[in-house]
Amino acid sequence: MIYREAGQFKDGYAADEQIFPIRQDRYGIVFILVLAFVGVPLIANDYWFSAILIPFLILSLAALGLNILTGYTGQLSLGTAGFMAVGAFAAFNFMLRVPGMPLLAAFILAGLTAAAVGVVFGLPSLRIKGFYLAVATLAAQFFIEWVLVKFPWFSNYNPSGVISAQPMEILGYAFDTPARKYMLTLCIVAVLALAAKNMARCETGRVWMAVRDMDIAAEVIGIPILKTKLLAFAVSSFYCGVAGALWAFAYLGAVEPAAFDLGRSFQILFMIILGGVGTVLGSFLGAAFIVLLPIFLNVFAHILLPGVSSSLLSNLELIVFGSFIIFFLIVEPHGLARLWQIGKEKLRLWPFPH
Amino acid sequence: MRKLTVGLKRAALCVAVGGMIGAAGPAFAAGEQFVPVPIYRVGPYAAGGTGIFGGMMDYMQMINARDGGVNGVKLTWEECETEYKNDRGVECYERLKKKGPTGATVFHPLSTGITYSVIERATADKIPVISMGYGRTDASDGRIFPYIFPLITNYWSQSTAKIKFIGQREGGMDKLKGKKLVNLYHGSAYGKETIPVLDIQAKKYGFEVTHIEVAHPGNEQQSQWLQIRQIKPDWVILRGWGVMNPTALKTAQKVGFPADKILGVWWSGAEEDVLPAGDAAKGYIASGFHPSGTDFPVIQDIQKLVYGGGKKGNMDDPRRVGTIYYNRGVIHGIITVEAIRTAQEKYGKKPLTGEQVRWGIENLNIDDKVLKRIGAYGLMPTLKVSCLDHEGGGGVKFQQWDGTKWVVISDWFQTDQSIVRPMIEDSAAKYAKEKNLAPRDCAKEAAAEGKKKS
Amino acid sequence: MDWQFFLEVLIGGLLAGVMYSLVALGFVLIYKASGVFNFAQGGMVFFAALTFVSLVERGVNFWLAMVITLAVMVVLGVLIERIVLRPLVNQPQITLFMATIGLTFLIEGLAQGIWDAQVHGLDLGIPDVPVKVGAINISQFDLFASATAGILVLALAVFFQKTRIGRALRAVADDHQAAMSVGIPLNHIWAIVWAVAGFVGLVAGLLWGSRTGVQFALTFTALKALPVLILGGFTSVPGAIVGGLIIGASEKLAEVYIGSSIGLNIGTGIENWFPYMLALLFLLIRPEGLFGEKRIERV
């Protein structure tokens, strides 16, 4: 009853091709955007902005990037963090070496640099599939890390190879407080998320999905495999690159290549698996889950289990974290987004099931 | 609509967790000074995290039990698990910075990565950061990094002390000419840090240095040590971390390189680094800014007041009291407490803000008299911090592993600031330029300070 | 060119490769029988070694500790099969892969939670000192490790070829459903495979642990095994051995003759990515690895 599309008639192609064809969805998205842009800044404090919301948004963006590659195109990748590192270091160098470089242009160029690197490492995907490809993308991960540590030019000859992000400023307006950084991140993430949603439902996305479901069949019906896969690698790496630049500029402020290690790649892969492979929503749900769970456990373990030694508690957190992941995979292998899907089906009739 | 749940969920969690975090910590009374403890108890470096922070918490517990706090102000602390990860460390910093009646007193990141990530935040929040023996080297220039204190000695200073030690062993600095050194370093930001300062010293003293990187984590070093044998160096400087250290010693033995010609940095010189290597570690020399052992009044006080009568301290295994990591933690505690004490002389005997404690650290003067009063004479070098020098001019001692324990084999070696200081000032100035920072004028501040006193 | 040095690097690399193979074997066993890419193998290596060492430190006899640890690994294998894998039957491979990463966290937390986060030394009584073979130095310990690996592979071969369970295992590996239809109890077989992988993990853990110390970093041994896997093929026991030898030798030679100042001098520390690049290049020619099963895709 609440979520019913009956009675919503489309009286033109434009109406039929809307990004959110159902009225409830449109209201919902407006509500979320209003909440994120107006509501959250009203209630959140600095802790929430700088320790939870900003990393959550940035990792959602990276997860979105990986979802395009793995979820929509079916190419398993473990090099996500490497592409994030490319983005972070590229943005730093564009800002440093090009006088008067506007911030957003630097982010876009950083994304494009990451996309270029992504295409190079995407080339083997033509021949290699599945886990062989996943392990092969580790080559990208380790190689990028090594290059960034090895050549001091990338970090402007900082002896420890750490880059300190330049202050963020757009048209004279400084994004220096946590709340402002949050707004900037939110704007970028919202635009890119809508773009991803749009891409996924038009030809680009459909071609990707065809390749995912069976690439040989896709080739037979005339889809250029090479172009499609490489495009997915490029778009995915672009998202990851922008996420990496934000990670350095809006979140950590100073990063070393080790901030983008293999653990980060796995973390992002977790996000899309738990959130839902091949959905935009899933990237956000997964990121929220993976970012919040360890912090949540760390805060609550001490309250729930008083008197247990701290070492045991820290290890328990790890155990519970692992168990949660396994538990979720067992009860809902299609991810949290699937739960929302089921919820929508239910809401179509509820509360009048007949 | 799809995004609705995200938003709702977020909002709900905001309220729920936010409320809980507020309620989570122990209740703080007004006369308390809060110290955050961003510990790492899990992961590959847990031995370091538990040892160092265990020692620091034990010391604070002892101060509370013995003296009733610092001049009557009780010390409180709360742990936060970082897993040695940058983002978790930042979360811990943000979570703990406002705890206690006056906020966080001082933040010990205990990870170079986390130090870098909190430099700007802490400066903006006016919370001092002490990175003792790690962290950002050029932060020793207090004019540009007012809130960051890489105390005792930074990596570059330590490197000069090491070369002095090698010089002494070889029979004089002039004997270094023509000698061959190998710098075997961990393939990370930390590992690379001393390459420039070694190159400069190589030029100055006329020795030859080859830098060889060991890829993280360093559990396989066959090819590196074969190269070393090929080079036939007089000394190998081991700049390792974690599993890289015992593996290096084992592999050195395998290719027949003598352990007493391997000189470790102080992140390669704990019991945890040599025990797994067994006999291969015998004779290995490492630098340190403190000895191990329990023969210090301060450690004995801890044993009595924190562990006495079967009580449980902050170490799961009380046998670790007196190990290298543990004693380093005690020194962390001593410096924290003395900084508070110094600041109290100026601001009164009450809980102080981070900004006030910053003044305390900057005016810290731990001389032999103070060390004797604390009961830590010989445990740590003397320390005198100033606006210009945030390092404090500490010394370095060298110790050798005899198969069961570390034996100190040298007196305090002073560092060579004529090499290090210009490098630090260069690097700090570059940072200031990147960030558009105006350096503080130390002379002016000192004059203003003097005027206020008189 | 210094041939003696070259030979030492080569032989040292081959012997290091054996150590990688030992870890890779655990992956292969499980992938072969159940199609699961078990990322938790590194965690299992750590868990087994830590359990063993902690028992010995508590005064348990060496062999008894071995038996107890083995029993623990068998129980762990059975539990994993029951609790994690059985509910996930018929899920896509990536879901199973993720579950094993979850398992990695669980096992790591369990290991450090039950025992502690301390670093332990482990002495198997075999000195890691060089013996001269001709003009070349070879470590006794490496020879011992190679012999162990050889015995292990032989034992596995006999187990797979000659025993009833082994034949059932091969049947399951070939085709789950066909095996089930002729009455092979799939669940038992999987539990056995995980237990055997636990045993292989124990052996790898002991050998690695006595070299690097028994500590958390043992979990990183998995990363050394991955290029071995893709080079040798996920499904082949001989592939794991041959792949290990190739990766070990080539990464050492690359480090010395491409990375260091002795050779091309592009920079040291290339061991982390070089094996992956090599495996990648190799895969471009043969996408299913050296000994992997060729897939035939039909539309």
Structural commentary:
The complex is a heterotrimer of chains A (354), B (454) and C (299). Chain A is built from 14 helices and 4 strands. With 354 residues, chain A is mainly alpha-helical. Chain A has a domain at 44-261. In chain A, strand 2 (169-170) and strand 3 (173-174) form a beta hairpin. Chain B has 454 residues and is of the alpha/beta class. Helices cover 45% and strands 13% of the residues of chain B. Chain B has a 7-stranded mixed beta sheet with strand order 6-5-7-8-9-12-13, with helices on both faces. In chain B, helix 10 (271-274) links the parallel strand 8 and strand 9. Chain C has 299 residues and is an all-alpha fold. Chain C has one domain (3-285): ABC transporter involved in vitamin B12 uptake, BtuC, CATH 1.10.3470. Chain C has helices at residues 3-34, 41-57, 62-85, 93-114, 140-162, 164-174, 176-181, 186-212, 221-232, 237-259, 274-285; strands at 130-133, 136-139. In chain C, helix 6 crosses helix 8. The radius of gyration of chain C is 20 Å and the shape is globular. The chains are: A mainly alpha (354), B alpha/beta (454), C mainly alpha (299).
Spatial ordering of strands, largest sheet of chain A:
1-4
CATH superfamily of the largest domain in chain B: Response regulator
The first-to-last residue Cα distance of chain A is: 10 Å
Low-confidence stretches of chain B: 1-28
Rg of chain B: 22 Å
User: Rough shape of chain A?
Assistant: globular
Report the average pLDDT across residues of chain A: 88
Instruction: Give the C-level CATH assignment of the largest domain in chain B.
Output: Alpha Beta
Shape of chain B: globular
Taken in chain order, the helices and strands of chain B follow as HEHEHHEEHEHHEHEHEHEHHHEHEEEHH
Structural domain tally of chain B? 2
Radius of gyration of chain A: 21 Å
| Major β-sheet annotation of chain A | 2 strands, antiparallel
**Helix content bin of chain B:** 40-55%
Helix content of chain A: over 70%
Give the termini separation of chain B: 69 Å
Number of helices of chain A: 14
Total strands of chain B: the figure is 13
Please tell me the CATH architecture of the largest domain in chain B by its name.
Answer: 3-Layer(aba) Sandwich
